[in-house]
Amino acid sequence: NAGVTQTPKFQVLKTGQSMTLQCAQDMNHEYMSWYRQDPGMGLRLIHYSVGAGITDQGEVPNGYNVSRSTTEDFPLRLLSAAPSQTSVYFCASRRDRGHYGYTFGSGTRLTVV
Amino acid sequence: DAKTTQPNSMESNEEEPVHLPCNHSTISGTDYIHWYRQLPSQGPEYVIHGLTSNVNNRMASLAIAEDRKSSTLILHRATLRDAAVYYCILSSQGAQKLVFGQGTRLTINP
User: Fold this and answer.
1) Which residues pair with A70 in a beta bridge?
2) Quick check: B5 and B102 in contact, CB under 8 A?
C-alpha cells in the first residue's frame, strides 16, 4: 500500500497565483483532513471530510477550498496565494469505524513570494 | 475540544526509559487519549491510544491515571531515532478530526 500520497513535495508560488495540493489515499479511509504547520509550531486543521461529498471547516479555513468527489482524493485549493500561506501542508486519513490512528502524508512545502 | 498540557521540551539519554507527561484535567468520559510523534521533516506518526486502561504496543506504553486527568507515554529504551516532537491529543470515539497542541520536543543524548 502506498498510504497517503501528497503532491507536489515542494512548490513556490507568486502572490495571487492559485494552485491545488493533491492528496490521495489507497486505504479506503472515509475520514480525511488537511493541516498546515508553520515553522516551530504545531499542526492546525484547515478542512476535513468524513466521506465523499461531505466537507467541513477546521480552525484556519480562510483562503482555502476543498472538495471530496471520491473516497480516495481530497485536494486542497489555494484561491489566491498570499505570503501568510507559506507553510508545510499535511494530509491525513483514517478509517471511520472503530478507533484508529490517522495516517499522515509526507507533506508539501509551499513558499509564496 | 478538551485541552492538553505538555512540557515544551524534555531531554533523556540513549538506552534509558523516557516518561512523557500529559495533563488533561477537562477530559470527558468519551475522550480517548492519543499520542502522535513527528520526526524532523516528516509528517506525524501515530504512536498509541487508550481510554482507561494502560496500553502497550511495539513502540511504547501508555499509562493513564485512575481519574484520567493525566497520562504518561513511556518509551522503554530510548534510541536516537526517538528524538521527535510528541503530541498528546484527546479525541472522542469516531472523532472526525485531531486538534494538535504544541507538543513536547524530546531530545535524546548519545
Assistant:
1) none
2) no
Residue A34 pLDDT class (50, 70, 90 cuts): very high
Nearest to B101 among A42, A48, A105 (CB): A42
Q: Which residue has the higher pLDDT, A91 or B3?
A: A91
* Minimum distance, in Å, between the CA of residue A79 and any CA atom of chain B: 23
Residue B48 has pLDDT above 90, yes or no: yes
Closest CA to B43 of A58, A67, A93, A22: A93
Residues of B (27-46) whose Cβ lies below 8 Å from A: 32, 34, 36, 42-46
CA distance B43 to B36: 10
Task: Say which of B32, B46, B103 has its CB closest to residue A102.
Answer: B46
Nearest by CB: B43 against A31, A44, A106 = A106
For residue B60, give the C-alpha cell: 511504547
pLDDT on residue A1: 61
Q: Which of B41, B96, B99, B102 to mutate to test the interface with A (most CBs of A within 10 A)?
A: B96
Residues 6+ apart with CB under 8 A from A48: A31, A32, A33, A34, A55, A56, A58, B96, B97
What is the per-residue pLDDT for A97?
66
pLDDT at A79: 92
Closest CA to B75 of B57, B51, B59, B95: B59
